[in-house]
Structures are given as C-alpha cells and as structure tokens.
Design brief:
The complex is a heterodimer of chains A (about 500) and B (about 160). With about 500 residues, chain A is α/β, with parallel strands linked by helices. Chain A folds into 2 domains: about 240 residues, Cytochrome Bc1 Complex, Chain C; about 210 residues, no CATH class. Chain A is about 50% helix and about 5% strand. Chain A has 19 helices and 9 strands. A 4-stranded parallel beta sheet of chain A has the order 7-6-8-9, sandwiched between helices. Chain A has a two-stranded antiparallel ribbon with strand order 2-5. A two-stranded antiparallel sheet of chain A has the order 3-4. Chain B is of the alpha+beta class and about 160 residues long. Chain B has one domain. In chain B, about 15% of the residues lie in helices and about 45% in strands. A 4-stranded mixed beta sheet of chain B has the order 7-2-10-11, with no helix packed on it. Chain B is elongated, with a radius of gyration of 27 Å. In chain B, about 25% of the residues are buried. Classes of the chains: A alpha/beta (about 500), B alpha+beta (about 160). At the A-B interface, α1, α4, α7, α9 and β1 of A face α1, β1, β2, β7 and β10 of B. β1 of chain A pairs antiparallel with β1 of chain B. The site of iron/sulfur cluster has 14 residues of chain A, from α14.
Amino acid sequence: MIERVHRIGQGMFLALQKPMSRAFESTANPLNHLGVLTIFFLWVVLISGIWLLIFFSTSVSGAFDSVEYLTNEQWYLGGVMRSLHRYASDAAIVTIFVHILREFMFNHYRRNRWFTWVSGVPLVWIIFPLGITGYWLVWDELAQYVAISSAELMDSIPIFTDSMAGNFLNDDLVSDRFFTLMAFFHLIGMPIFLVFGIWLHVFRLTSPRINPPRRMMAATLLCLLVLSAVYPAVSHEQADLAMTPMVLRLDWFYLHFYPLIQITSPGWVWLMLIATSGVIVIAPWAPREKAESPALVTLDYCNGCERCVDDCPFGAVEMVPRTDDTNYSHQAEVDPDLCTSCGICVGACPTATPFRSRGDLVPGIDLPDRSAATLRDEIVAADEQGATPRVLVFGCRDDRQLRDLQEAGARCIPVNCVGQLPPSYIDFALSRDHADGIMLLGCENGLCTYRFGANWTEQRLARQRDPMVRRRVDLSRVALGWQAPWSGCRNAVDKYKEFTASLAK
Amino acid sequence: MKWLTEITFYGLFAAFVGVFSAWPDYQLVAADRAIVSVVFSHAGQRVGDCRILTQDELNELPPNMRTMNDCPRERHPVRVLLRSDSETLYDATLQPSGIWADGKSNIYKRVEVQAGTHQLFVGVSDSGDDAGFDYEQSSVVDLVPGRNLIVQFDEQSQQIIIR
Ligand code: SF4
C-alpha cells in the first residue's frame, strides 16, 4: 500500500522534474535543494528582521505606527525589508512542505533515516509559532484576530486557570509587558530553538549542505525582491478591540488552520495538529521496512585506507585502532545503528575488485545481503543473455526506471545504490568482454536515497575521486541513466536505446 | 530559451508565494453582524456550609492546620444565560476548574448576532439553584456591524457588566 503511494508520488515529482530539467541542470534544480533553500530563506528573514527591529517599537501604542512608518515613509528600504521578511517566511513554508512531501515519496524517511525525519517535526512546530507571532507584533486587525484566536487555542489546554483570551477584551488590558514578551518569543526565544533544531536535524548526516548554489540564491532573492517591489506587504487597519475585524487578508501559508478554530473548535484544531504530527512521527515504522544486514568489515582485507569513512553518507563508519596484529594502524568499524546498507562504502573500497584471482572475492567492507562476489557472478552470468550490442545496466534498486529498462529488454543488475558499484567492475565487464557497454542507472544528484550515490559515481568516473575508473576504460562505452551535467539523459529508456544504437554503429 | 524557462519557474514561484500570502480574503464576520463576547472567570459558591470545629477536633489537628472552620472545597458550577430579545444565544453550565472542582469556572464565548438594537439579558447562577439567577442584568444595546460587545462579571461589585 505505502509502496503504491510512493510510486504515485514519485511519478508526480518526476513529471514536475521533467519540464524543470529543461531549465535547470540537476545541480541547479531547486527541487533538489529544498532543505538548503529553506535555510537560505531563513537567512533572508533574519537579515530583513534585523533591519525591521532597528525601527520597531515594542509597545502596544508604538508597534503599529512603527510598522506603518517603515512601510510608507521608508518604503524604499524598510518597506522592501518588511515585504522580504514576509515573503521569505512564506517561501520557507512552501519549500518545507515540498521537502517533507518529496522525502516521503522517495522513501527517504525509513530505515536509519528516521532520526532526520522525526527531528524535522519539532522544526515545523517552531517555525509556525515563529511566523504567527510575527503577525501579532504588527498590532493591526490581523494581529488582533491572530492574538484572540491563539489565546482561544491556549485556553483550550486545561492547565491555565485564567482565560488568556480575557486579556484581549479592550485596548487597556493589552499591556506593553505582554507585547514585549511576544517580541521576545519572536525575536530571541524561538530563533534559538530553531537554530538548535536545524543542527539536530542534520547532525547525523555526513557533510550536510547548508547553502544552495550561489546562482539559486541570487535568483530566489531577486524574485522575492521583485515581488516585494510589485506587491508590497501592507498592514490592515490598526487593532481596535471594541470592534471585530470582518474581512481579513490571511497569510494562508501560516494561518491556514486559524479559520478552523472558528469553524470547528480549538480542541479539534489541537487534535488535528497533534494527530498530523503523530502520523508523521510514526511513519518510519508504519510499516517497518525489512531490516537489512549492515555493512561488514573483514579485517583480513581492510588496510585502513579510510575511503569508506570519507564516502559513507551517514557517518556510519569510523576508523578505530587496529585489533589484529597487522602493521596497519587503524581499521574500519561500522555502527549498525547508523548503517543504511547502501553499499557506497563497498564502492569506495579499493579491495572490492573483481579482477582478484586468488581466493574468494571478499573486500575489506561488504554488504552481506548483496555482496561484491554476487555482483561479479551476475556480470559473468549476464554475458550469456540477450542480443548484441550487449549493454549491461547497473541500476539502483530504488529507481523506478529500472523496471522500465527491464521491460525494454535491458540486462539489468540491481544494486542497493549506484554508488555501491566500484569503478573496477566497469573495467572488469568491458575488458573481460562481458559487455559491449555499461549503463549506470541511479537517482539524479539530490534525489539519491543515499544522498551521494550519484554524486560519488560521477566523480569516480570523472577521475576526481578515489577509487577512480582506470584510464584504459573507454568512457564512450559508459552511459549515465540520470540527469548529470554531461550525461545528456532526460529519460533512462530513451538513453538506453540511444546508447545501444551508438554502440551498434 | 533555457533562460526564459528558468525565469518562468522562478516567476511562478514568486507569484504563488505572493498570491497566497494575502488571498483569498477570509470573511470572519458577515457585514451585517456583530459579536457579543461573554468572558469572565467566576467561582461558584461552595457546595456545603462551613462547620465550626469542636475543641477536641481542633486538638487532633497538627498545630499549623488548626483553623476554626471546616469548609468543603468543592464548588457549584456556574450557569450563564445570554438572551437577545426573546432568543437564547447561549445557555451553559460551566464546571469549576481544578481536580477537586474547587477553582473558578471559566467562561469564554463569542456569539454572532444581527447588528441593530436589542434587548439583552444576562443571567448568572453560582449557587446550584436552577430555579432562578443569582445575578441578572438587562440592557438595551445598539450594535453597529462589527461591534464587539463584552459581557463580564465584576468580582468587586458582584455585578454583571455589559459594555
Ligand atoms: S552501507 Fe552505506 S551507510 Fe552502511 S557503512 Fe556503508 S556507506 Fe555507510
């Protein structure tokens, strides 16, 4: 059931990706940078917020006037900053939502990635109040609505003895102190939690990216600036507690659930919010994915080269002092709780070479459930099948195009991640005449289930990263089935046909 | 061409953000309606009378707990009725807060009414007696559209206030 949802969702994302790939290389595609784009938007929010703070008055009487001053008198800077502050916050909600959806659809939340997934939930619970308290500070009619509705929400929690909404009965009851408290939450309290939450969200990842590509930052900033100039953010009328605002221009990104407080009840809204968060939190275990054996180090073949440590996307391998009596000083050790069985470490291991003639093929690090020896056996066996030219496809098992290729008659060897394939296997298949061409199928950079599979493979083939493909390998006989700056691929099946035809010439 | 597609995507993104940042409008209250908010916290009377302890009973208590009166903690719920002309807008019995039911009853209710002149009646009962009200207030109010009329209970004067 859940796999079907994933498949449908992936289809939708890939359909969106297609027209986008006409405009962007995979490394510049915003869909592949949603998390870091959110962080970039938060930077814009922070910087524009600092400017607003300089002129903002944290008192009931002064707040509205100071924001009006910024918007109208100082429109060329303060007004633009205000609009940027708002639109960047809204844009962050869009990227967060799409980020969550995409990680879910591409199954990037189960197995050992549960922690990153679950730690995203508190971040959402921080970002919403952060944005909502921002609306409160303007002290216009929208702020009045937000303040009263938020107070109704708080009052429905049966721990407060006095009604918080009772503080908003008339203008005299709203004190400067209360206002300062809200400003404190918005300006200091919640941002501190947010920074800590972001750190927690990414701390289990190796080399987490913090910034999107420069061009993307420039383009998004420019489009928010243009939006701010064309359609500046403005206030409603000043808050007047003796009257009720009748028509509001709600910011639907942050306040979409507020009308539900009036339509249903605050209790229902809590229930809905808590239930949604609960479903997200338990999603990695509902249903639990079949456990796979973690990577296994065989000391007899581990020379302590550290490449597995460098390439593991989840920080699951570390070097520890040697426990046997060889001359090497260190050995690799896998933390089974962090290992996702992606096999990228096997792809990085220099001892995972199919050319080995003596003894069994046992590399220093290997996947017990999908071993390097099995892969070699499958290459040799594939030799027997099919028509010429013989194109052998090594395809990521998570890539939905693998099935399409199989249906198109390709000889496919599934791997856990395309990064699992050591470059020596390509050399082996071509030089030992087991294939006329090799096609690698993986998820494009940024979409990879294991983060760096496509990235490391591209670098290994471009001879920029160890282990590199040997110079004798004719790269014109190697094709990439994902979008990369040099692959020329938009669709794996088309690419396969095109590649096969080019080999036949 | 590539440039154009890129600009189109960023433009669409900005338009999406701009549009839903303030549209569509949300009609909180219809143009010809006003609001009556009943908002107060009031403690119901205690469910039983206090009893004066005998000297023997007092002697049995630890010295720091010797008070003459033994009063039950539990309080009666508070009933609130709001009527506009002859239409009942709100009639609820609110339980006291606290696990021992010894706290205040909290009332927070916003009711939409047709704008215009109304004869408003508010009754509050805190003695558990359903036959009548312990406090009553009625007044003729003129509600302009969008007006937020507040009904409160003033603990000092023990009176219902409509303003
Ligand atoms: S299998 Fe993947 S996650 Fe596990 S140690 Fe190797 S590279 Fe790291």
